Amino acid sequence: MDAPSPLPTLIRKKRDGERLEDAEIRSFVRGVTEGTAQQGQIGAMLMAIRLRGMDAGETLALTRAMAGSGRTLAWPPAWHGLLVDKHSTGGVGDKVSLALAPALAACGCKVPMISGRGLGHTGGTLDKLEAIPGFRVSQSPEEMQRILARVGCCIVGQSAELVPADRVLYGLRDVTATVDSLPLITASILSKKAAERLSALVLDVKFGEAALYRTQESARELARSLVEVGAHLGIRTAALLSRMEQPLGRAVGNALEVLEALQCLGGGGPPDLRHLVTALGGVLLWQCGMAAGAEQGRERLARALDDGSALGTFEAMLGAQGVPPDTARRLCAGTPAQRRRLLGEAKVCEELPAPQEGWVQQVRALPLARVLHGLGAGRSRAGDPVNPRVGAELLVGTGQHLRAGEPWLRVHHEGTLDAEGRRELQDALCLGPEPPRDPPPLVAETIVPSGALPGPCRDSQ
Fold it and tell me: Element (H or E) spanning 102, and its range?
């Protein structure tokens, strides 16, 4: 074990713009994990990293040290090359994981997906799944392995044993205004993926008004950092840059997004949701050598959505994670009305009329998400409860013509939507006198390691 370095010395070194050695970074992470580092010292180091940055080698060392701060998952040798996961930087209406994990499992992958909860205006995968009666997101590593052996995928929360250093640093980043630090984001995301011992990883790095990064350039910088460090960890990593100006799909809110994910799993649903699910899945299948290229991978994943195998895998995953079998069956095989009743409905369902005639230019995701957050669909602090029944359904799409008074949004709430909230929601609807130009593609760019070729994956060490 490395001799511990005095933390004030390390803070001073990074504060002054010097490079930290690998052993010094390991010493810092050990202090965080063992509790010997004071919160003020950790906060000072986070700010020094935020202001001075880290080079690729430092970021890799930080990621490795964090990944090694707790337990790493172990898998049967027969699964090597098949273990895949996806991470999104967060968006509005992003229910991709609910459809992607079972579709990948139906194609033969093993998907130990470790997801998070929503915070601020972005939704969390775990919150969506907990809208399903009985679903249990807490699973031990041993339970995860049993579910993967039986079903092929699971979607779980981060256990206390996995990357404990990240839980400390993640909590402090929010209160020290260091959330946007590139090396800290990279290490936080990839340390968890390294602890999963993945073969391949695809990242959905979103940009736009409702994303963490507003511009494509800043999203590209993060994506390149993630792809480069992921490759050095032995994980075949790729990133897709996707736009987040408008909600993904037509539904926003936990229960409503489950319903829309079920449509996608059944071969239907909004075209943009299906496009992103198949694009991300296609890249993963290519990365693992299960498809000759990303386009062939996309086609294979689309077949899993269309032939019922992805939906069947989702039903099996629900049963394996605590949902009563009859509930899982009714949710996956029921009519839309039966599904809604099973998940529960809000007290009030109201439709907002278009304030004037015009062509829909776009529906802005950010004001929509902020109002729903205030109605109980999201949380401001970790641990706050959410109301899974609160949400909204878009009744229109870009390029559609609306008459004045025609409904464009259906809001589900508990009677708490006031006049100010309705005004804010109306601000999300952008109308124009002429049809809009063709929108830019949802996926703006794909980033892979330089010299990346399709073929079998190495497993992360």
Answer: helix 96-106
Tens digits of residue pLDDT in 17-32: 999 999 999 999 999 9
d(CA 396, CA 250): 8
Q: Among residues 50, 95, 173, 339, which one is catalytic?
A: 173
- Does residue 330 have an active-site annotation? no
Q: Which residues contact 17 (CB under 8 A, 6 or more apart)?
A: 52
- pLDDT score of 164 more than 90: yes
pTM: 0.93
Q: What tokens does 249 get?
A: 């799909």
Catalytic residue chosen out of the listed positions 85, 166, 272, 459: 166
Give how far Cα 128 sits from Cα of 288, 338, 365, 434, Å.
28, 18, 18, 37
Instruction: In whole angstroms, give the CA distance from residue 182 to residue 246.
Output: 25
| Active-site residue, from 14, 30, 50, 87 | 87
| Catalytic residue flag (residue 206) | no
Q: Which of 117, 308, 129, 108 is nearest to 200 (CA)?
A: 108
The pLDDT assigned to 37 comes to 95
Examine the residue annotation and report whether 87 is marked as an active-site residue of this protein.
yes
Enter the tokens of residue 417.
């939507």
Which tops the pLDDT comparison, 170 or 431?
431
